[in-house]
């Protein structure tokens, strides 16, 4: 992990992976196959990409029951505790419909309604993520979504992660389908004989999942186009380099393209963290992945002071930001761009991944400049409410006519003018 004496945005070799044209064409072809052949395409593509020859796509009750037997009871207890925290946090995000009534009887307002049906994509492959089930399903449930389904890639043996099934079961989700990749996104967007089309698709995935979500956007909603995970640890000289290194590696182990960055005004801490990252890498089960991440994407940036460090934070706009300084709240007001902010030496990033309550589906690759974590808001839609009284119509009608005439829209003018004429006739 290199130490750099100054921050240059060009040095930070991370960008939104838009994929190659070959990958995009492959995704377009997969989507077309699913649209044309439905379940049969899913069976064929699952065997091709996952090595699993399935007899059915939906997880059975027996498979759910077996999953509970395979997962340690203490893990189940921890999942239950995490569910409680995550649900409580998201309940604070709930919105209510509202209306205001003018003195003349005109009513204006906004109606809040949940989406009807949502599909949660839970990644598989190199690891199993029951936490992704909790983070995508719970805010949808809090929002009031009536139907939630999960798709997740199976193993070569045709099995779904026991932890994923237990997490789904604890949340009362019994519709889990053994399909991953771009084909899962296509199935959720267009529907097949077995998998229903949904109003929105949420959840992270690899580049093929991201490209597929981009292709189907407009047919269905999506949460975001997520890239590899990233973390920035802002630390002063008083921090423990063991903890800083461990937190950096907690994200580096996700993906060789994950980005782990430390920003500090202390050269002594920077050198200690650099050594500690090397030491801890030797003991990580996923050392090859984490090493590729810190060597290619990672860096330790030295700044003049904490003020400059905050400027670096706002330029990078990290997915995860750990503020490990003596007085973290003193810097909080200056931080403009970050997906999730962890304050203090004990607020380690994995607390947010699993347990604290805020959502871990976060804007990556600097998109925290303009987007937010997954929330209850992602699972609702708003309808404007307009009810004009006759008095209000007479008062505002001429304003509308003037504006419509200025834009050259005669039918708009007539829709108002005819009513005003009728009102005048009644007054006579």
Automatic annotation (TrEMBL):
Pathway membership, UniProt: Amino-acid biosynthesis; L-histidine biosynthesis; L-histidine from 5-phospho-alpha-D-ribose 1-diphosphate: step 9/9
Keyword presence, rRNA processing: no
One Gene Ontology molecular-function label: histidinol dehydrogenase activity
NCBIfam families listed in its UniProt record: hisD
Record: residues binding Zn(2+): 251, 254, 353, 412
One Pfam family from the record: Histidinol_dh
Protein name: Histidinol dehydrogenase
Family statement drawn from the similarity comment of this UniProt entry: Belongs to the histidinol dehydrogenase family.
SUPFAM superfamilies named among the record's database cross-references: ALDH-like (SSF53720)
Annotated active site: 319-320
Binding site for substrate: 229, 251, 254, 320, 353, 407, 412
Role noted for this protein: Catalyzes the sequential NAD-dependent oxidations of L-histidinol to L-histidinaldehyde and then to L-histidine.
């Amino acid at each position: 992990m290199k130490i750099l004496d100054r921050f240059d945005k060009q040095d930070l070799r991370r960008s939104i992976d838009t994929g190659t044209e070959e990958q995009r064409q492959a995704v377009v072809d997969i989507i077309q196959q699913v649209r044309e052949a439905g379940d049969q395409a899913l069976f064929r593509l699952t065997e091709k990409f996952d090595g699993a020859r399935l007899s059915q796509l939906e997880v059975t009750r027996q498979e759910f029951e077996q999953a509970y037997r395979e997962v340690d009871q203490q893990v189940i207890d921890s999942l239950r505790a995490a569910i409680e925290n995550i649900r409580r946090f998201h309940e604070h995000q709930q919105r209510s419909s509202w209306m205001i009534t003018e003195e003349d009887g005109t009513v204006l307002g906004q109606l809040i309604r949940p989406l009807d049906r949502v599909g949660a994509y839970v990644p598989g492959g190199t690891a199993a993520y029951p936490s992704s089930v909790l983070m995508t399903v719970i805010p949808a449930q809090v929002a009031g979504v009536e139907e939630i389904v999960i798709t997740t890639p199976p193993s070569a043996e045709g099995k779904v992660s026991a932890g994923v099934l237990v997490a789904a079961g604890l949340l009362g989700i019994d519709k889990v389908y053994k399909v991953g990749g771009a084909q899962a996104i296509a199935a959720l967007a267009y529907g097949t004989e077995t998998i229903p089309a949904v109003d929105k698709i949420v959840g992270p995935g690899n580049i093929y999942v991201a490209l597929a979500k981009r292709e189907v956007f407009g047919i269905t909603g999506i949460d975001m186009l997520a890239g590899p995970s990233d973390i920035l640890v802002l630390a002063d000289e008083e921090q423990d380099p063991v903890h800083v290194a461990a937190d950096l590696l907690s994200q580096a182990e996700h993906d060789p393209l994950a980005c782990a960055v430390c920003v500090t005004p202390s050269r002594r801490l920077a050198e200690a963290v650099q050594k500690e990252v090397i030491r801890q890498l030797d003991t990580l089960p996923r050392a090859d992945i984490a090493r590729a991440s810190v060597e290619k994407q990672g860096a330790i940036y030295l700044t003049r002071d904490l003020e400059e460090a905050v400027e670096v934070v706002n330029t990078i706009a990290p997915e995860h930001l750990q503020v490990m300084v003596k007085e973290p709240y003193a810097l909080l007001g200056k931080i403009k761009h970050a997906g999730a902010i962890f304050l203090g030496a004990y607020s380690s990033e994995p607390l947010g991944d699993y347990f604290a309550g805020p959502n871990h589906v976060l804007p990556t690759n600097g998109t925290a400049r303009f987007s937010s974590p997954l929330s209850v808001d992602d699972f609702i839609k708003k309808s404007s409410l307009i009810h004009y009284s006759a008095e209000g119509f007479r008062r505002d009608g001429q304003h509308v006519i003037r504006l419509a005439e200025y834009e050259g829209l005669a039918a708009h003018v007539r829709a108002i003018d005819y009513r005003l004429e009728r009102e005048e006739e009644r007054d006579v």
